[in-house]
Amino acid sequence: MLSTALTSHPFPLHNHHHRRPNCKSFRIYVVKSSSSLQDIKKIPSVQSDGSDERSELLTSWENIALPPVTAAKRVVLVRHGQSTWNAEGRIQGSSDFSVLTQKGESQAETSRQMLLDDSFDVCFSSPLIRSKRTAEIIWDSRKEEILTDPNLREIDLYSFQGLLKNEGKAKYGAAFRQWQIDAPNFIIDGHYPVRELWSRARSCWTKILTHGSKSILVVAHNAVNQALVATAIGLGTEYFRLLLQSNCGVSVLDFTPKTEGGPPEICLNRLNQTPSSPIATGRSAGRKASMRIILVSHGFPQNDVEGTNPFSGDSPMNMLGVIQAQKTAELLLDVKVNTIVSSSATASVETANAISRVQEAADCLGADCVPRYVETKQTQDFDVENILKHTQKDLTGSQPLQHGWLRGYEDEITGALWDQSGVAWKSLLDEELKEESETEYVVVAVGHPALHIAMMGHCLNLTKEWLGSFHLDAGSISVVDFPDGPTGRGVIRCINYTAHLGRWSIPITRSTLDDEDF
User: 150: buried, middle or exposed (CB in 10 Å: 19+, 13-18, 0-12)?
Assistant: First the structure.
């Protein structure tokens, strides 16, 4: 069901196409795997017209249009399971020497079970061993052949490939540091790997979307899956490492045809639904994250049994909503929550109270202990239901709210939602996140899915035009890490995670909007 931000925009926005860059003659390098490092084979120059940026691809990713679709399609992206080089901390890139570890095989098996009941029509896979093996485990006994596409290989990192990370730092110094902090402008062996990856990923969508299937599984890698998500919804290379892809994490994109033709409407239904808990302590963008905001969508209210009414959050939760809130509270036992902030709407307050009760009781299992106090507060900045109610359109119905449902609102409504969510997001960063250097500080924000969609848009420095590009279900959680503190860039660890809800969750690959051809 997710853009003028109140904070500055450090990243350029990408809702239009730039002119194709002019390029003089440059050489294309072909990566040939023959050792732990990559041998670089030069082939004849390619002539073009214009600038001296010899390492740029001939076509900017923004100039590669997404093809139109004639029927709704759902694409499920999965990253491969843990590999031997993942475990060693070795830079893999597009090399093909690592295989799945036992843990990686188990992760792939968990993903297979998670997707067991989903009716995929086709599976695309990277040809690299670690990805193809993951695809084989998930695809299991399905009869259709797995289609490999070399463009789904991992990012080409040339001379970095095969090095342990400490070796890369020692051998390449400033270049390795640039790879860590300014990857879009990182250059090695005459190449800009991230820029090349974005163009390659955008090109992949042509093959995927022109395939006749409506439910498509794609098994690939960390960086290329990031690029696939970003180029689908129109985000540039500056978003590299901001949309996390964990081993065997599942991301879902919905493509809906437009009646007037042209590129489809696109919605990121979920990001990085992992075999293990998404809130267990870990690293974001390769760095330890000591500050975190967890966005919790309240459970189903009493007058909204199937999630068909976007205005019903001020009613108490029904039994399904109570179960969803309890399941969420149990999932959050993996972290020590410091503060809970919620909307004043009844369903949000009930969800916040469920989380608070479980958190406070978690450390008090002995007879003499004192329950831990968790600060819980309500804020009117989170109350967006009254904004949504002012619509003149009938957006309720007999089916659960579909992806991109916020596109159905008038500009005045989405503008007001965007402005208020900006105030809410700024207050979370300025007033709730504490500058804690030694311990993890976790804030849980409970509210309406529309609020969280909009706040994620502010986190990513987007505009309200992106509100229809993200979707959240009742009872879902989304996690934003701040490895550089509240003034740094937020890293999206997951969006619309619902695996903790079990049978009370909406399936990952529920039916797309309809089967109508345009």
Answer: exposed
